[in-house]
Structures are given as C-alpha cells and as structure tokens.
Specification:
71% of the residues lie in helices and 3% in strands. The protein is an all-alpha fold.
Length: 150
C-alpha cells in the first residue's frame, strides 16, 4: 500500500480511537506514527540493495519495481520475490506487546499502530490477490525460497 494511504488510514483510525477511548494525545500519536513509520524498512531495503541514501530515488526505485512486476501475468506475480521487510511481521507486534506488559503501556500503542499497518497491507493483498506471507517475517523467509527472484 502506498504511504499516503497509510498516512490517511492511520490518521483517521488514530483520531477515532482518540475521540472514543481515553488514550490521550500521546497514545493516538504513537498509533499514528507507528502505523506509518513501519515502512522505514522499505527505505532500509533500498539502501541495502542500491547503496544509495537518496529518499526520492528510493521512491522512484519502488515505482519502477512495481511497473516491472506488473509486466508479469497476475497468476505469475505471486511466484516472484523482490524484497523482504524486516519490520513487516507479527513477530514485532508480539515484541511490543511484551514490552508493554513488562515495561510501559506506551508499547501497546506502538503494537496497535504496527497491527493497523499490517492489517491494511493484508486487506490490500487479499483484495489484489497478492501473497499474504508478508505479514510474518519468518513465513516470508521460508516462502521466498520457493519464489523466483526479480
């Protein structure tokens, strides 16, 4: 999902939660920020692959990858691997839930934001008939061994 949609959805959900539940400005802000900033791993992947730190070029690089992927028939797209994203996994949500339990409640808000992000990615993947293994780092690492590299 494009970042602008994560920003929009994250903002709407965070505002809704702020108005309905007593989570405060800090809680709503953490949910919003973590629902958007989880995509930082896309930029890290770009740096790893290209050795370039230019954020604008990173965006263009991903648009080009998307264009390249669309050249394949829809049935073939799910058989192609081109990136792993370290923060896109339910495993991180579990880590933040545990941190919330053992340390501070603010980690629950980060876990909620990350869950919101992964949930919207999952909905998009189901709607567009994409692979759904991307919601678990471990499942994605196992699955990508079976896929053709782009």
């Amino acid at each position: 999902m494009r970042p602008k949609y994560h920003v929009l959805i994250g903002f709407i959900i965070s505002l809704f939660l702020y108005l309905i539940f007593p989570i405060g400005v800090l809680g709503a802000s953490l949910i919003f920020l973590s629902s958007v900033l989880i995509d930082f791993d896309h930029y890290l992947y770009y740096i790893f692959k290209t050795k370039n730190f230019n954020l604008k070029k990173s965006h263009s690089w991903y648009l080009e990858k998307e264009k390249e992927l669309k050249k394949y028939p829809k049935k073939e797209r799910n058989k192609i691997y081109y990136a792993s994203y370290i923060f896109h996994g339910l495993e991180w949500i579990l880590v933040f839930i545990l941190l919330g339990y053992f340390l501070r409640d603010i980690f629950y808000f980060i876990a909620a934001g990350m869950f919101l992000h992964l949930f919207t990615d999952l909905i998009e993947n189901i709607f567009n008939k994409k692979r759904i293994f991307k919601i678990s780092i471990i499942a994605d690492l196992i699955e990508r061994k079976k896929l053709k590299k782009m």
